[in-house]
Amino acid sequence: MTGFNTYRLRVLLSALLIVFLSELVSAQETAIVYGVIKSDLGIPLEYVNVVNMNTQQGVVTDASGYYEISVEADKSVTLGYSHIGFGLEERQLFLARGMRFKLDMSMERTDFQLIDVPIEDQRIRNEISTQKIDAKTIELFPSTIGGVEGILKTLPGVSSNNELSSQYSVRGGNYDENLVYVNDFEIYRPFLIRSGQQEGLSFVNPDLVSSILFSSGGFGAKYGDKIASVLDVKYKTPNKPAATFAMSLLGGSAHVEGSSESHRLTYLMGLRYKSNQYLLNTLDVSGEYKPSFTDFQTYISYQLGSDLVLGILGYYSKNKYVMIPEDRDTQFG
């Protein structure tokens, strides 16, 4: 048992001797560089990268700016010092084996001039509360009423109590407190539709729209004296002939546009038809529903001068409400 313990002691002493000799040999083949790094104001710098450029090995300074790094002895070594906000510093050294060399550094701050970045917004100057709506999203937006009003109902502060109606209220206001402009023409709707069963087409024809601006409050006095909201729609100014046609179970639409050779005369024409017959068959009142809504719009403009344009907006609408009720079944909870 004593022989076994003696053997273990010899093995342990041999291992310690090998480690000591290897460290001694390593220390004789390297040198130590240490010091404190400060800014040009004399403040110790933390997290300064000190890198041996020959081996790409490095250390970072502590909170007091102190560092210590091992480098190859008996050969030229380049140390690099870098820190965010300060310029790169390099020092070339040639140290003997086992030498400890103190190298304090003072790093100078570097100012960088950033490139100007232009920032553009989608709001109108002096109209902080005005929102710009992409006219291309009208065709992609699923809605039973379609048109611009379907998108408006999704905006903050805008609400509607009937999905079959294009009427909307803003911040609790009445339906007739909303301003609507088409190419700077104010649109008057002298009657209010009380029920979605008797809702016709929206005035704005999506096929003719080029831009949409909407404000739910805080708009300028140039829009008029109503207090709820303003919908400012601009129709297209075509420069070449074009036409579209669409058809569905609820109706259809078609439009043509074009301009003269000099582009001084432009025209837009749109025809729409809609019927809620298939939607209304699911109501509580059973019967024969045959409502039909048709409208025709045209906008003709002529450029009289560089800043003077003559515009004519024409509108024809026919709303036919046909309902023959048979019975009604209402459930009370």
Question: Care to describe what's here?
Answer:
The chain has 333 residues and is mainly beta. 13% of the residues lie in helices and 41% in strands. The protein is built from four helices and 22 strands. A hairpin with a 2-residue loop joins strand 5 and strand 6. It is elongated, with a radius of gyration of 40 Å. The relative contact order is 0.09. The model is unreliable at 192-197 (pLDDT under 50).
Quick overview of this protein structure:
13% of the residues lie in helices and 41% in strands. By secondary structure, it is mainly beta.
Secondary-structure element sequence?
Answer: HEEEEEEEEEHHEEEEEEEEEHEEEE
Tell me the total number of β-strands: 22
- Overall shape: it is elongated
Spatial extent as radius of gyration: 40 Å
Report how far apart the termini are: 95 Å
The main sheet comes to: 5 strands, mixed
- Assembly type of the chains comes to single chain
Given as residue ranges, the uncertain stretches (5+ residues, pLDDT < 50) are 192-197
Strand content: 35-45%
**Structural class of the helices, strands and pairings?**
mainly beta
- Enumerate how many helices there are, as a single number: 4
Percentage of helical residues?
A: 10-25%
Average pLDDT over all residues: 80
Order of strands across the main sheet: 9-14-15-12-13
List the helices and strands and how they pair.
Elements: H1 2-29, E1 30-39, E2 49-52, E3 57-60, E4 66-72, E5 76-83, E6 86-94, E7 100-102, E8 105-107, E9 130-133, H2 137-140, H3 147-152, E10 158-159, E11 169-170, E12 178-182, E13 185-186, E14 209-215, E15 229-235, E16 242-248, E17 251-259, E18 265-274, H4 277-280, E19 285-289, E20 292-303, E21 309-320, E22 323-328
Parallel strand pairs: 1-7, 1-8, 12-15
Antiparallel strand pairs: 1-4, 2-3, 2-5, 5-6, 9-14, 10-11, 12-13, 14-15, 16-17, 17-18, 18-20, 19-22, 20-21
